[in-house]
Structures are given as structure tokens and as C-alpha cells.
Design goal:
The structure holds two protein chains of two kinds. Chain A is mostly helical. Chain A is built from 18 helices and two strands. A two-stranded antiparallel ribbon of chain A has the order 1-2. Chain B folds into two domains: 35 residues; 118 residues, Cupredoxins -  blue copper proteins (Immunoglobulin-like). In chain B, the strands form two sheets. In chain B, strands 1, 2, 3, 5 and 8 form a five-stranded mixed β-sheet that branches. In chain B, strands 4-10-9-6-7 form a five-stranded mixed β-sheet, with no helix packed on it. In chain B, strand 6 and strand 7 form a beta hairpin. The chains are: A mainly alpha, B alpha+beta. At the A-B interface, helix 6, helix 10 and helix 13 of A face helix 1 and strand 7 of B.
Chain lengths: 556, 166
Amino acid sequence: MGAYTPTVADPHVYHLPVDQRRILRWTIYIGYFALTAGVFHGLANALSYAGFSILGWFPGLATYYQGLTAHGVANVLFFTFSFSNAFLPLLTSRALSRPLPTPLLYLGFVLLVAANVLVIYAVVGNRASVLYTSYAPLQAHWTYYLGLVLLVLSTWIALLIMLAALRGWRKEHPGARIPLMAFLCVVSYVMWFLASLPVATEFILFLLPWSLGVRAQVDPLLTRTLFWFTGHAIVYAWLLPAYVSWYVLVPRQADGALISDSYARIVFILFLLLSIPTGFHHQYADPGISNAMKAVHGVLTFGVFFPSLATAFSVVAALEIGGRRRGGTGLFGWVRKLPWGNPSLVAQMLAMATFVFGGATGLINASFTMNQVIHNTTWVPGHFHMTVGSAVALTLMGVAYWLIPYLTDRRLVARRLALASSWIYTIGILIFARGMISGGLAGMPRRTFIAEATYRSEAWRIPGIVTGIGGTLMFVGVISFFAVVLLTVFFGERGRGPRDVPVSGSLTAPSLAGWEPWLDRIGVWVLAAIALILVAYGPFFLTYAPAAVSPGFRLF
Amino acid sequence: MKAHSYEKAFLGAAIVVLLACMGALGFATFVHGIHLPGIAGRIDPAMVRTTPPFDQPGVQRIGDNAYRAVLIASAWSFNPPEIRVPAGAEITFTVTSTDLLHGFNIEGTRLNMMLVPGQISENRYTFREPGEYTIICHEYCGLGHHTMFGRIIVTEPDVEPPASGD
């Protein structure tokens, strides 16, 4: 690491106790298994836009919307949170060179498994084809709501695990700055904890008792607003673990360094402050919400774009340092010198590249004037497959290429297939998103069984075919990924995994003087975030009189 | 160090770009008058068919070259399934749902609303071109979601006030 300041407390290798490592490994397996299970339905959805229905090929799948529910729930809830539940505590432990509280690790794992069992029971039996947004008054079986509540609880346990480790470390190191890697992990899940409270309220107070018959009726606008209160920040809960990798792991993998310790902390604090008070931009088209408050959320959504732009600068600068150290010269010559043979790094660099388009289309969503053209069209999934579907999914796949060998102590096998998987996926997503986006601009509705729709537009034909081709390539990419993971777990050469987490160094050290130690006062930033949330959501909740008007409908 | 002066320039540019986007948003809102559906009243979804104006769904003339189109969404159709309005007239769409969430997107226009049981959705639009437009329910509403649509026939501007179709 040379002259750089490490982003962990102690650069010497630290290994978690074997039993703790095992729990984290199995938690990660659940995540990658959910990813792979979910993309089968993803393929069916993409082909539906091209006019093919392959539903008949899926044993036990009754309807398109059942498959779409499985795709959403498996890929954006179970995949992302299972991964983060293991990845963030693992890095926190590495950053502090400390073990984690074992009982809480077991508790979190049990909750995650129980969540899986309940939700799989509900979805596979077509008892919960309500899509991942779970909008009332479509009513799922209670096991579905309870399962998702347990999933959220498991994330809270993961946060507790990190806070316990951090608290222990700080007691032993009074006055010391929190190691950057631990800080970023903890802030990611602190943000998510705060963000998850509204959806937890929605499920525990309303949807779960309503599905059990304890409550006869709910207010669909209220539950929907609670959902989106969490629903935008949730995308940052998926994204921040990927950003953690980009800030403190990727620079090392590229032989570069993080340009600034404080810069990274400020970016994560901005996400803590700005991720949550933005939810109304998902409800621009809703009745019953004042347009002034929609505009406030719109402006804040532009605000939360800023830390992502700052991230773009920082990660590219870190890569450039690496490229130049490896002998690259000239304005762009360093790009060629990056380690393009490293499947873990390549996946993540491709994730960053596709995220540029994800970000740009996100700005259009946030602009409420243009939003009216694309709201609820395929434009929107076109957009978010270039955020959660690439920046996040591809980064998490890239992380697997070092993390699975690290956790199993086996050498990565089929390196070429691993490299190819990322390129195939990236080419696939760019084609797929192109189709979805042009279809959306022509009004093609999202979350709709287009292959059997009773209306049609000539303008959707080509975009639909493009979507189907791209989606098929994405599917091939993920299946190749899963094959590499399976082969590594079962056949990788033992004792040849990486010895340590790829810990990056920073060009600047965290300062003990001046304003910088204030960055570590996470509690203060939480209070500031709450204040901003009150400004953004206070007027709605203070003036909105809930009217429980909707019984449950099970029309699926 | 050099990276930090580039960093300042980059972040400055980022702020300028974001402010420019917000400026464009303000311009479109206040100069072009592009508005979102906002608060337009509440209704009991069980009583929609007997509550004005939904007791008489269809198109009514409400002023000089201004019409109101009242529609009811239920799984999985719109009532009335087809309406006729003239081009060049300002149409106020007043829509609600009797059961689930539904969507109301007129293909090829910016008229795009969510229908939420208990709430009335309202927005205005002026069609420039005569022709046939599809109303698409773009919010998942159960098994028959992809069969839910309506039609708007936009007639020549000078035609006399049309009656609602049925």
C-alpha cells in the first residue's frame, strides 16, 4: 500500500472466527441463489415484450404476474439484502480487526431463512402475486407480508451487529477516528434503518393485520405513501454497499488509491441526509398529494444526485491513479493499462460505466414535467435496470469473484467465463434498456403482460424485440456467473483463495483536528436527516386524514 | 495536489448542471403551464356510481371550448369505454377507481395519472390532432390488467359538442 493511509484500523490480515465466517458465507449464498432464481422470471418478462410467452415452460408458475412478483422480490429484496447483511458486517469486522457478536449473527441468519421460507411459500403458491411494491388493496396471503417483515428485521440485526463491533472498538480506541471502511458500512445501514421505518409501519400496522382479517379496510393512498417513503431510499440501500466496494475495495484491485478519506465520508453522509425525503417523486402522478410538496421532493431528488456525481469523480480518479502506476500515460492511455483480466474489477468497472446512463435517465424521472410522459411505462424499468440491475447487480457479481474464493478459501475457477459473464451481461443490459426506454417513450406500459395484451401499438414492436434480445443476453450473463460460483464452491482448488479482503489506501489520512472528526458523529447526522424528513413529509402527514376505504382484493 | 483542483471544478460543474435542470423544470411549469395532478377531492369507492359527477360518466361541456370527461375505472375496464372530444378544446379528465389501483395514461400524450381508490384524479389536456387515442391502464391491477384499456376519439375542432359514447 506504500505511502497510502489504510482505510482499516490495522492493515495486517484479520480473519473472522470460523463459525462466524460460515454464517456470513451462507447468508451470501442465499443472496446469489436469489439472484439466479429471479432471473428465470426476468427472462420470461423480457421475452413477453418481444411477443413470446414462455410461461408454460415454468413448472409451478401459474401467471405472468406471479413470475414478475418472484423476479422483483428475489432480485431486489432477497438478493440485495442477503448480500449486504453479510458483506457490510464482514467489512466492518475487517476494518476493526474484531469478531462480531455470534448470537446476533445466528439470529439474523435465522430471520433471513424464515423470511425466505414464508415468502417462497406465498409466491410459489400464487398466494401473493401483488408485485414487489405490494400495493393495497390487492391483498396477499399473510405469510408474504410477515416474510418481508422478517427480512427487514434481519437487516436491523445486521446493523446491530456492526454497531456492537464499532462500539467495542471505540471503547478501546477513545478519540480515534472510525476507520473509513467501517464508517461507510455502518452509515449505509443506518440510512437504511431510518428509511425502512415507514415500510415496516405499513406492513406491521396495516397490511399484515388486514391480510389476517384483523383490520377490515385500509387507506390505499396512505399505505402507498408509506411504501414510497421507504421506496426511494431503498434504492440507495441497494446501491451503497456497491459504493462501499467502489470506494474502499476497487482502488486496491486496480492498484490505485482513494483520493480522499473525508470526501468519501461526506458523500455517505449526504446519502444519509438526502436519500429519504425524496419519495414523492415516485408519486408525481398520484392524486391527493399537493403539487408543492411534490416539487419539494423533486428538488431534493436533484440534491441526492450530487453525491453520486461526486462518487463518479472519486472512483474514476482512483482508477486513473491505478492505471498510471501501472505505466499508463496520456489523457486516456491509463485506461488500457488497468487490469482488464481481473473478473472482479472488470465487472465493477462495467457496472460504473452503465450507471452513467442509469443516472441520466434518473434525472429525467425526477423532472416532474418529463415524468408525465414516462411514468409507469417501460422507460422506468429501462432506467432502474441500469441502476440496481447493473450498478448494483454487476458490482455484487464482481465482488463475488473475490469474496466467494475468500470465504471458501478456494481458487476462482473458469476465469475466462467469469470475465465473459460481465461483458455479456453489460452488452445485454445496454440492448435491453434501449428497448425498454424507446418502448416507454412510445407509451408501452410496464408490469404488463404485453405478449397477451388486448391493445397494441406498432411503435412498440421493435423496442419489444430489442428488449427480448437484451434480456436474453442478461440471462446468459447471470447463468454464466452462477456457473462460475458453483464451480468455485465445489471444485475450486483448496487453500488458494485470497488471504485478505482487498483493502484500499487513501491519499489523505483522516484528521484528528478541525472539522473532520465531526464527520464521525453519526448520531448528529441522523438527527439532521430526521429534521429533513420532517420538513419533506411533515406537511403531508399532518394534513392527511386517513380514510380506510378499501377491503382486500385477491384478483390474481 | 492536482486531483483536488480537478475535483473542485468537477463538483462545481455538477452543481451548475443540476441547477440548470431545476431551472428548466421551473420554466416548463410556470411558462408552459405543465402541471401534475394534485389534490382534487375524495370519494368513497363503494359509492362512486351514485356520487356526482361519477353518477353520469361521459363527456360534458363545461364552458367555451372546454369539456369535462368523467370516467370510472374498475377491474378491468373503463366506463365509458370510449369517449369523443374535439381537438383544440381543453379537456378536464376527472377519474376515479371503484376497486384497485389503476393507471390512466393516454398514449402519445403527457396525460398520465394514477387512480387510487378513495381519491379523485384530475388533470387537463388539449388534444392538437384529431384521431384515435388509447387510454392504457398502466398500473398492475390483477390477472386481467393487460386487457384494461379505453379509447378516445378526438374529432375535428369545429364539430358540435359530442355526446359520450357507451
